[in-house]
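Q: Sequence in, structure out?
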Amino acid sequence: MSETASLLTFVLALAFDVLVGEPPAKIHPVVWIGKLISYLKAMTGPTPTKITGLIVASIVILSTVVAGHILVWMVGPLGIFVAAYLLKSTFAVRCLLQTSSDIGKAIDNDMNMAKGMLPALVGRNTADLTRAQAVSSVIESLYENYVDAILSPILLYLAFQPLGLGLEAALAFKAISTMDSMLGYKTKSLKEIGYFPAHLDDLANFIPARISIFFIAMANPKRASEALDTALKYHSATPSPNSGWPMAAAAGSLNLRLEKPGFYVLQAKGKDPDTSDVPRALSLMTSVLILTAAAALIILALLQP
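A: Exactly. Output:
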């Protein structure tokens, strides 16, 4: 893909995401990646091993990258539109903002409904969450997913584009991320097969998670130092080596106490969140996303001949 095509591909992908959102499940690349993962997992039998997980991960990543590359090549002159469609599938700006907003409104109006909606964002048990803890979970997930669902695939696209492999890198990341969301749990049935997918996901998000704190800090200049200080102080409070960075930076920028009961507290001195903080978090995230998109466009423009 040429430098000009890579810029246009990114612009089209971003426009599709913001204006249209997620495509139907029948033609959504991530849904098909998920089907492949489910099929391969079923083939591994009742006691898969770590080596089995490595084989599954290799097949999923290679199949995703090769399928995307061939599909773009097959359609010839229309390849840029297919590339944009595939690139869009690796990040989810509109979906993340809309889901977070909808759940925030539900918490304000009907906690029981909100608890039923929260699993779309978080993996924790929602049954006993207080209102403040439910709001915290929305904000935590919003900023954790900023890295996994937006920043990481964009950064990989930028990093590998000079080699002509930007789309392939973003697709490889999405394959890894999807495997982690389906297999990366420490349960008896998934601990072994999910070992490599989970560690690959940690590796892929390692640098983006740390870069994210600067975008979050710049999005609210008045509390930039608090965002960075909180990230540096609390990033290791979470079990994940990556999620603590953007979540703690958000806690500092918004001056909030974010908590996953029984697991961690980010910025203990911050105020307990309430439903009015969800729009604040979304506004901050909108600024973060604008900065992210602007930085990506500048980098792609600088790559032009």
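The longest strand covers residues 258-260.
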